[in-house]
């Protein structure tokens, strides 16, 4: 039996997912990778005790995105007639952005190396990104005569703005870690051996907060890109009413008034 394509390791209330295909530089276009992401999201959403997820890659790359060898042989996702490929994308790699968009807990990308094509877009599907000094980002589809088929044209402008998104997508050029920090792709750049500790430290800072409020806050941030102010205010009012009736809200207020650390239970 081959090793799982997505290693899932738990440490307390934080889970780390490691893309485990270093021989393909962690390509994610094959069915087993797609299925692994969808399953991991479903399992995480069902487990109310999980408070944050860290995503990273095994080996020297974060993810090369699509498997170029499969493109060359027109196999897997890249085979079939045009109408078959259209369905293949919808029922294949596009399941990843749909799944990750629905992930209820915050997700941190610990970008350990190159994030290329769909691998770059995979980082953009996360809520926060931390990069190693060895990382770079490339919306490189155009270099292969392709377009961002996994939602990159929707994701990238929301992270870097329309002008820089156009520069990245139309040139396909690399953006190094320092530039990624300047452009707001990542929030921090650290040395390689500091990457996972930095991601875990950030995850712990998130996980210490009331998990129901964290999940709802993430939902509001997601919805804010698609709703009017009035729509978001209405959703916020509803969620706030729910938050006021949680045990964790009462504990947070009591701890604040009593000047002690709070203990949250996720309800």
Chart the SSEs and their pairings.
Blueprint: E1 6-11, E2 14-19, H1 31-46, E3 52-57, H2 68-73, H3 82-91, H4 95-101, E4 107-111, E5 114-116, H5 118-124, E6 128-132, E7 136-138, H6 152-160, H7 162-171, E8 174-176, H8 177-183, E9 188-190, H9 195-207, H10 211-223, H11 229-244, H12 247-258
Parallel strand pairs: 2-3, 3-4, 4-6, 5-7, 6-9
Antiparallel strand pairs: 1-2, 7-8
Helix pairs in contact: 1-4, 5-6, 6-7, 10-11
What does this structure look like?
It is a single chain. With 267 residues, the chain is of the alpha/beta class. Strands 1-2-3-4-6-9 form a 6-stranded mixed beta sheet, sandwiched between helices. The protein has a 3-stranded mixed beta sheet with strand order 5-7-8. Helix 1 packs parallel to helix 4. The longest helix is centred in the first third of the chain and has 16 residues. The model has no long low-confidence stretch (mean pLDDT 93).
Question: Which terms summarize this structure?
Answer:
9 strands; alpha/beta; 3-stranded mixed beta sheet; 12 helices; globular; 267 residues
């Amino acid at each position: 039996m081959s090793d799982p394509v997505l290693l899932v390791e738990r440490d307390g209330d934080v889970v780390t997912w490691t893309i485990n295909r270093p021989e393909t530089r962690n390509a994610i276009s094959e069915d087993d990778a797609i299925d692994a992401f969808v399953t991991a999201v479903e399992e995480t959403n069902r487990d109310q005790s999980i408070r944050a997820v860290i995503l990273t890659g095994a080996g020297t790359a974060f993810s090369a995105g699509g498997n170029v060898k499969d493109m060359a042989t027109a196999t897997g996702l890249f085979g079939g007639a045009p109408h078959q490929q259209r369905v293949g994308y919808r029922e294949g790699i596009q399941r990843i952005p749909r799944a990750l968009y629905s992930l209820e807990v915050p997700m941190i990308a610990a970008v350990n190396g190159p994030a290329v094509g769909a691998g770059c877009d995979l980082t953009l599907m996360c809520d926060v990104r931390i990069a190693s000094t060895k990382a770079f980002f490339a919306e490189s589809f155009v270099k292969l005569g392709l377009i961002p088929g996994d939602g990159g044209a929707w994701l990238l402008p929301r992270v870097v703005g329309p002008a820089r998104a156009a520069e990245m997508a139309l040139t396909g050029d690399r953006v190094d870690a320092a530039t990624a920090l300047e452009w707001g792709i990542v929030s921090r750049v650290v040395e390689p051996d500091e990457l996972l500790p930095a991601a875990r430290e950030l995850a712990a800072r998130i996980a210490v907060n009331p998990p129901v409020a964290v999940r709802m806050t993430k939902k509001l941030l997601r919805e804010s890109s698609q709703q009017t102010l009035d729509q978001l205010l209405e959703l916020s009012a509803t969620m706030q009413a729910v938050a006021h009736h949680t045990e964790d809200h009462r504990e947070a207020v009591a701890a604040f008034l009593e000047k002690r650390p709070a203990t949250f239970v996720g309800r």
